[in-house]
Each structure stands twice: as structure tokens, then as C-alpha cells.
């Protein structure tokens, strides 16, 4: 269970007119209980949806309020939370740090498998699971954009988190790879929270949150939530 209680996120912002810095609200107040298996988060760019996603594994900490995952507070139990909550970024290059897929996944497994031979065997198994077994030893630069995103997901899932949070994981992908990644996320055993601009994917979730101006302005049935978001964007003059 993911719980957000009266969460607000603020940041200092310089005054463009040269005056004193000021505090701006990025998100909140937000109170949520997230238990569904598939949750989508939609909203315009800059609405606060990525801030919301980053709260769930402690990449962003609340300025006030609390975020808990299975009773663990992200502010005080950050390491334990990150063991339970994996995070996938929009750009896989932000996550891939080693020269080959095998080395990159093995890096994620270094604590789980201290023995190098066992670690490499587990890494190869993880890559085979996502259709990358034959690419294990090639340069990551030889992978397509879709394959790199699969690699990023494989490295996160190799440690078997209970929850997977994805921040626009298909935004940089073409239609074919978007479908591959969407289908993969839909079939996972983990609870998945995905920030997305793909409204068709959002409609297939169990629950959809609509974020606007740092607030959750709609929360509920996927089709109704997407319709609310489309109406909201139409009122804002966004095509």
C-alpha cells in the first residue's frame, strides 16, 4: 500500500525581476491511498505528475506531509523504500551506466548475488526474460531505443521490487516499441504506477489520476478520468 497524507512539495524560485527568492508550490496538498495493481497518472507538462511519481520512492521528499510504502516512510526509511519501489525514467540513458547489457543488469544484482558467477547467470536470465538474451554482450550503443528501455526495465526488475514506478517510459519510443513496453508493464506481477501521455494506455489501467497545477483534480475510473483530462486540456486551449 502506498499512502500519501497531506503531502506538499515546494521549492525556492528566483524572482525574475531581481527581488528576493520565493517559495513556489510544485505539488499538493495531496492525500491518496494507492492499492490498485495498475495506476496511470496523466497531466500536461509541468503539471506536477513527475513530482508525484518521484515521491513514491523517495527521489523527491515532501516539504510537508508523509509518504509511506507498506508502512515505510520515504523520509526516514529511504533505503528500505527504494528496495521495494523500482523507478524507470523517460530516457533509459539516464539509468544505463555500464558498457554492455550484461554488465548493467549485473550491477543491479551485486548485493543480491555476492558471487560473481551467480550474479552473471542471474543477469543473463533477466535479459532473456525481456528478449535481450542474444544482446547481452553487445555495446549498449548498438541497442535500439526500445531495447535500451527494455534494458532499463530489466535492470530495475532484476531485484524484484514490489512496486514499479515509470515516468513516461514510452515517450521517446516509436509506436511498435511503445506497444511492446505497454504490454510488458501490463503483464507484470508488481504493482505498477505509470506516468504517461499515452491515453490509450491510461484507459487500460485500473485507476487514473489526473494532475493539473500541482493538484490531483480527478481520481477514478480510467475512461472517465481520461475524458476529464481531455476536457481540461480543451478548456486550456491545448490541442
From TrEMBL:
It comes from the Bacteria. The keyword Chaperone does not apply. Belongs to the ABC transporter superfamily. Gene3D superfamilies: P-loop containing nucleotide triphosphate hydrolases. Residues 2-238 form the ABC transporter domain. This is Cobalt ABC transporter ATP-binding protein. PROSITE patterns: ABC_TRANSPORTER_1 (PS00211), ABC_TRANSPORTER_2 (PS50893).
Amino acid at each position: 500500500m502506498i499512502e500519501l497524507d497531506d503531502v506538499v512539495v515546494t521549492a525556492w524560485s528566483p524572482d525574475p525581476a531581481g527581488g528576493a527568492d520565493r517559495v513556489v508550490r510544485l505539488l499538493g496538498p495531496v492525500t491518496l491511498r494507492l492499492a490498485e495493481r495498475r495506476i496511470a497518472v496523466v497531466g500536461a507538462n509541468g503539471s506536477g505528475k513527475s513530482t508525484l511519481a518521484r515521491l513514491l520512492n523517495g527521489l523527491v521528499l515532501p516539504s510537508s506531509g508523509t509518504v509511506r510504502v507498506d508502512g515505510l516512510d520515504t523520509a526516514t526509511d529511504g533505503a528500505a523504500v527504494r528496495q521495494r519501489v523500482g523507478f524507470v525514467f523517460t530516457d533509459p540513458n539516464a539509468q544505463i551506466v555500464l558498457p554492455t547489457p550484461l554488465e548493467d543488469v549485473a550491477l543491479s544484482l551485486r548485493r543480491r548475488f555476492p558471487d560473481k558467477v551467480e550474479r552473471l547467470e542471474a543477469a543473463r536470465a533477466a535479459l532473456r526474460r525481456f528478449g535481450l538474451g542474444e544482446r547481452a554482450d553487445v555495446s549498449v550503443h548498438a541497442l535500439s531505443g526500445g531495447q535500451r528501455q527494455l534494458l532499463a526495465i530489466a535492470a530495475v526488475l532484476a531485484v524484484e521490487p514490489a512496486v514499479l514506478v515509470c515516468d513516461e517510459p514510452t515517450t521517446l519510443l516509436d509506436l511498435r516499441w511503445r506497444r511492446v513496453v505497454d504490454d510488458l508493464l501490463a503483464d507484470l506481477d508488481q504493482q505498477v504506477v505509470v506516468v504517461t501521455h499515452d491515453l490509450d494506455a491510461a484507459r487500460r489501467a485500473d485507476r487514473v489520476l489526473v494532475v493539473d497545477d500541482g493538484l490531483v483534480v480527478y481520481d477514478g475510473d480510467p475512461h472517465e478520468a481520461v475524458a476529464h483530462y481531455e476536457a481540461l486540456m480543451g478548456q486550456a486551449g491545448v490541442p
